[in-house]
Amino acid sequence: MTLMLLDSASLWYRAYYGMPDTLLSPSGLPVNAIRGYLDMTARLVSIYKPNRLVACIEGDWRPSWRVDIFPDYKANRLEVGSEEEEEPETLTPQIPILLDLIDAFGIPMVGVDDYEADDVMATFATNEKGPIRVVTGDRDLFQLVDDKRDIKVVYLARGISNHDLVDIDWVAQKYGIPGDRYALFAMFRGDPSDGLPGVKGIGEKGAALIANNFATVDEAIAGAKNAHEALSPSLAKKIIDGVAYLKIAPTLVNCARDVSLPAMSLDMPKKPDDLSSIYAMKEEYGLGASVDRLIAALNW
User: 171: Cβ–Cβ under 8 A, 6 or more apart, which residues?
Assistant: First the structure.
């Protein structure tokens, strides 16, 4: 009973940049993100054959409880003088249409106020039985990997055709750390894509050394203060100097796993008696074979 969790914003951004901007509706509206998202979803469903499927969306991409403790959280994605995420102007009008299509297909869709899609996916991964496949192009979700519960990340950084299926061993080989300590590693290394600085002066090599010798931030801080043999004096000083940031880093980096999710069926959508609304959108927006591929992948 495989559950597939789609990091929808990650998918439509990748679709937008991966598909030609010459894909237009009959009225001239760009539809590259819509078509790419449908194509990717069809491919993923065909490859992994999930029994359950959820399109996870952002309730808030800068949750107040993260911004309150770290105002620069994702601030690098803001336009100067704006409170909105910087988003390509030809992508913005495609998103409501895509969401209407996802709804028309009957794919369960969940976003929760003041939480990111990552938090929604993490809560589903915590509460639901495996196997679970988390589909994303972002490294943040490597923290969810759990071999015992068969939770893996379908990592799309290199595209659908060359994607990686990330498990504990993959993380360990990629970063040279225990595979279940990716979040700890990220707290020290930082993540420029989220505007998270990490600990000043500690890069990937130092973060890996820390993750190999300590299981938590508090253990690493205690090790630095007590001159742990694994830490050079220089690295220990950097940890101590970064204590203020490290005290909030777990809240910033760890996904929330206790989001209040709506009660709903996660089953694959059943073929509706009438496909006319889907076909009408297909014609109106010139979505062609992309709609047909998803219909075929769903075995309708």
Answer: 142, 145, 177, 179, 180, 182
What is the token pair recorded at 246?
Answer: 């490290």
Which pTM does this prediction carry? Answer: 0.93
Residue pLDDT, tens place only, 254-272: 999 999 999 999 999 999 9
- The set of residues, in sequence order, having a beta carbon less than 8 Å from that of 83 and lying 6+ positions away, is none
CA distance 50 to 241: 47
Amino acid at 1: M
Report the alpha-carbon distance of residue 300 to residue 293 in Å, rounded: 10
- Distance, in Å, from the CA atom of 53 to the CA atom of 268, rounded to the nearest integer, reads 6
Q: What is the fold of 3-176+255-272?
A: Rossmann fold (3.40.50)
Question: Domain locations in the chain?
Answer: 3-176+255-272, 182-253
**Amino acid letter at 125?**
A
Q: What is the per-residue pLDDT across 189-243, written as a single tens digit (0 to 9) for each?
A: 998 878 899 999 999 999 999 999 999 999 999 999 999 999 999 999 999 999 9
